[in-house]
Amino acid sequence: MNIIKDFLLQLTLTITPVFIYYTFITEKIKSDKSRKVLFSIIWGISILLCMSFPVSFGQNARLDLRIIPLLFGSLYGGLWPSIFLSALIIFYRLHFGISIGFYNTVLVLILSLPVILIFQKSFSRSKRDKRVKIAVSLSFYYSLFGLTIFIILRGFSKNYLMVQMIELIFAVIVTYFFTILIETIREIHNLRVEMQNTERLRVISELTSVFAHEIRNPMQATRGFLQLLNDPDLPLNKKEYIKISIEELDRANEIINDFLSFGKPSVNNDEKVDVGYQLRRVVNIIQSYSLHHNVKIHTDINEDCWMYANHQKLNQSFINILKNAIESMPNGGIVWITCTSTDDGYIKITIQDQGIGMTKKQIDRLGSPFYSLKESGTGLGMMVSFQIVRSFKGKIQVNSEKDRGTEFIILLPRIS
Ligand code: ADP
Ligand code: MG
């Protein structure tokens, strides 16, 4: 009975790091590299705990589920985490003294690690079902190897064999459920990212039709001037025409650039971003959309507000909020945008409209998926904005009064 208890403790020790990792790390840590390092450290801690509270039986014989963290660290992390975790196992085992158990550990590792690494490549390319099969087979292989080497080194005993068999069955079952659990969590995570992308594409497609005007206007103006330049009885202000044409073309170019950068999927999550500058670009992108809705945008933007973020995502969250503000005024009106730094280390952005406003109940529902009061709304814009701001450790406050207007206050951590 004690043995089963010990195994259950082992189970807890291996399962806790997974939850810690997926609850506190995957979404919060932005850079891939630090995520990988933390990932290895967490699995490393799991290995140390497993080895510190082993299932003890017989003389100087210890058994534990270290295969679980080793296996998952290697399969999901790749070469370096696997080397780190193996080295950790060997050094920690050394700390208990060089005994037959130590040789046992080293031998099993030498024989099974290369096999795990060989399968790691096909694991990372495979779909969920195949991943489960690979992980379970490797866990079975490792435990069987452990069992065989144990018998070779220490001789056969019925009691030992029974404990080893329990370990094997335990390891295989735990691996099976673990892989499914991790895969499910990863799927949910990917789905979220995909949803953000879909919403961004939808916003782009909505903006493009109005955006086309914005490009056409300067083109038409320039064309008119070129025609004039061709006129032999050209009035005197030739230079002026050329100057205006160049300005118009530059503006069109700027809009295209802003638009393209907004549409690109983003990679770097940790760049230094000037929030004020980005806010201006967002206003540029949305300008034609707002004019189309008879809405004027007034800005008071303080540049030189820097933070670590991903500028595309940040812009996406601004655009979603701004678009709602514009849409909340069916008869037109004014949107005020401000951006300042606060004394307590934040960048404060406010976006205020004179629109239809929201009741307390509506504010509470804001940000839940598919909540929309618009006929053709998706109800994803606010959810995405909240997610993005939260991922940059920021906050959003909403003040609103029915039929008076709404104010969004976005607080983002500033680089001091
Ligand atoms: P969608 O715009 O597709 O409806 P959102 O998630 O962007 O979805 O917004 C959800 C809902 O929140 C909107 O349908 C609207 O009712 C409400 N809302 C958001 N912003 C404002 C605002 N500035 N003024 C009034 N209502 C708003
Ligand atoms: Mg919206």
From TrEMBL:
CDD domains: HisKA (cd00082)
Alphabetically ordered keywords of this record: ATP-binding, Cell membrane, Kinase, Membrane, Nucleotide-binding, Phosphoprotein, Transferase, Transmembrane, Transmembrane helix, Two-component regulatory system
Every Histidine kinase domain range: 210-416
Membrane-related topology note: Multi-pass membrane protein
TM helices/strands, residue ranges: 7-25, 37-58, 70-94, 100-120, 132-153, 159-182
Entry-linked InterPro entries: HATPase_C_sf, HATPase_dom, His_kinase_dom, HisK_dim/P_dom, HisK_dim/P_sf, Sig_transdc_His_kin-like_C, Sig_transdc_His_kinase_LytS_TM
A single MF term (Gene Ontology): kinase activity
Principal location class: membrane
Reactions catalysed, as given in the entry: ATP + protein L-histidine = ADP + protein N-phospho-L-histidine
Catalytic EC class: transferase
Pfam families (alphabetical): 5TM-5TMR_LYT (PF07694), HATPase_c (PF02518), HisKA (PF00512)
EC annotation from Swiss-Prot or TrEMBL: 2.7.13.3
Subcellular location: Cell membrane
Protein name in UniProt: histidine kinase
Phylogenetic placement of the source organism: Bacteria, Bacillati, Bacillota, Bacilli, Bacillales
